[in-house]
Amino acid sequence: MKNTLEDKVLEPLYTLYNNMHTRFPLATNYLSTAVGTVGGDIVAKQFTGNPTVRARDIAFTATAAIGYSYLAPKMIEWSTALTHTLSNSWKKLKNTTSHLLFNTALVTTLYFPVNMVYWNYLSLKNEEPLTLDNNLIGAATLGIATIPYLFADYVAIKRFSQPETKKYLRPFYSAVELVWNALFAGGNYFAKKL
């Protein structure tokens, strides 16, 4: 008899996702990513003075999901290939733990310029000027996000870099983005209220 949360909710979602990914992998990858970009923006807006979500907001963040759905697995592939290449000459990287930690730091580093482009893209969406000051705020914000994203990238590389688990990478990152936006935007909101 099915009576646990896993049996009632998670198992059917898992089966539905696997069936969708088998039949429509590109659409599933995109939708999985869009949950994080669109949903993350909606969550973040709830903590602003203007929580109204416009069609413009959805159009911008849904478009950004196209790039992220392609880049999420590619970043891990590129960092893993570079880490493997470096491990041929750098003996410390031959150690499994060092290899994984270096690969994690590398993928997080590779994401920084991509996320700065996204920061400016969101600035355009929010009709804010593209200034040096705004980019410095973005760099500082992304610097703060580095710590939780290092952990997320570590989990992503360890759990979702194999061909059989790669299809779960985008939903994983979307969940991370939703949680991070809720915590970060909510923390900023409550800090201003104090």
Q: In percent, how much strand structure appears in the residues?
A: under 5%
User: Which structural class best describes the helix and strand composition?
Assistant: mainly alpha
Low-confidence stretches: none
- Count all strands and give the number: 0
What is the terminal-to-terminal distance?
49 Å
What is the residue-mean pLDDT, rounded to a whole number?
Answer: 87
The portion of residues assigned to helices is over 70%
What letter string, H or E per element, gives the SSE order?
HHHHHH
Largest sheet: none
Rg over CA atoms, rounded to whole Å, is 18 Å
Count of helical segments? 6
Shape: globular
Description:
The chain has 194 residues and is mostly helical. Helix content is 82%, strand content 0%. The protein contains 6 helices and no strands. The N and C termini lie far apart (49 Å). The mean pLDDT is 87.
Summarize the structure.
The protein has 194 residues and is mostly helical. It contains 6 helices and no strands. The mean pLDDT is 87.
What are the key terms here?
mainly alpha
Describe the secondary structure blueprint for this structure.
Blueprint: H1 5-23, H2 25-45, H3 55-89, H4 96-125, H5 132-160, H6 169-193
Helix pairs in contact: 1-2, 2-3, 2-6, 3-4, 4-5, 5-6
